[in-house]
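Data deposition worksheet. Section B asks for the primary sequence of the deposited chain exactly as it was used as input, without tags or linkers unless they were present during the calculation. Section C holds the resulting structure in token form. Section D is free text for depositor observations; keep each observation to a single sentence. Incomplete worksheets are returned to the depositor.
Section A, Depositor: J.P.
Section B:
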Amino acid sequence: MTIIYALLISITAFVYFYLKAMKALQMLQLNSYRNERYTKWMSENKSKVYFLSDILPLFGLLGLLISPFVAAIISIALFILLIQLRPKTKEKKPLAVTNRVKRLIRTTLGLGILLLAIPYLLLSEAWFFYFLILAGVMICFRTYFVVLLANVINRPFEKRINDRFVNQAKAKIDDCKKNGLKVIGITGSYGKTSTKYFINQLLSHKYNTLMTPGSYNTKIGVTLVANRDLSLLHEVFIAEMGAKQPNDIKELGELAQHEIAILTAIGPQHLETFGSIDNVRKTKYELIDTLSDDGVAFFNYDNEIVRDCARVTKKRNFTYSAKDKNADYYVSDLTISARGSKFTINTPNGSKIAIETKLLGELNILNLVAAVAVADELDVPHQQMSGVARTLKTAEHRLEIKKTAAGITIIDDAFNSNPVGSKAAVEILNMMEGNTKFLITPGMVELGDEEYNLNYQFGKYAAENCDYIILVGKKQTEPIQKALADVNFPPDKLFVAKDFFEGNAHFQTLAKAGDVVLYENDLPDTYNE
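Section C:
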């Protein structure tokens, strides 16, 4: 019977360890498998990493005063109780079981089995149950560290796999370039995804194009798209390039080998990892540094830091603007209504392109000007660009406007948020025709030392343009709450939800036909309070 009770202790402890490990792996994945980000999240979320209840099975040790079998029964019952009582929260982005995750699961579970096996191998029968129960409690209490160790163990192997796939992608891109492929690289603190979508729509009527979908903007993301989808039939490859630390864009640029570069904006994004705006600038400029010698760069003239970058570059370049006539491509005769925008794009050779589009907001217009400039460089007829602009679609969750069956207008800007984009989104909300104007937001994150002040300013601006505000996260939104209080925003028009699901449920109880709601940012599960 001893071995049966021992196995039951091991099995129940292992099942609970497995369930916790899946949650830990989800957090590791959301932190891009980067140990420094994962450990930072762990240090900031101790209540989600360590459960005091996990030590409950240790009470089984008291049973040793009676007999090992009593100790085993108590511990087994308490492990089963932990399985039943474990936190069950709704997940906005569940763990994606990729091949990498499968390898991590195997290593994590292997470590768990190894730790549980030690008492079977090394200890005398007198101490067997004592150390078995202790081992079970320790792997459950320290599950997040076991996952961290698994990631460390797998890292050299993952690097070899990644390097092989990256080299395959680079060779494939090189072969396609010999066949005439043009590669466009896009980066910026914001605006890059929308610009990519607009470029793809403008070019696809003349060229066979391929773009990195969604936010496949990491080295592995671009590698995956190139290996999986790129072929000799493609004439243009549009690659979005994101960065969270120095050299990220350099590695992407060396992979993509682009001849056209677009720098959309430089601002206080990901300052927690970059440390300073200057580091952001240097990293984004790596797109220009890796541009081919005969390539051409496009710079956002409305962004002061990007404008300065344009002044120092030695590469052939053009600037674009939504308002400044000193840029090479600029907007004039702009009229905006709730139904869309109408304007003229002036080109460097003096020609004019008439644009009528459903797009709203200065940022969308600016991104469209960038796309038109690139299309002009690739000889897309102006009349064709004008025609495409009428049906141009935004990227998903980026100022995407929808209408529900209940007659509620939704402005979906939930993908992410930045100081410039959040302000523009609230302006669009105010501009829309409708009754009550709702804002649902957790505010902005990863803005370093400026985060509190920028969210405070956003709160003041939201108070001027919104009728009802739903904030997501009591702690995360403290600066917005303070701003609303300082400007005497009506307390009965403010609701602070513990998470997105509660906030959206509250909105559903208030919304009526003719109302307009802006979803501004939707933080990943790592930010749940």
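Section D:
The domain at 400-527 is CATH 3.90.190.20 (Protein-Tyrosine Phosphatase; Chain A).
The chain has 19 helices and 15 strands.
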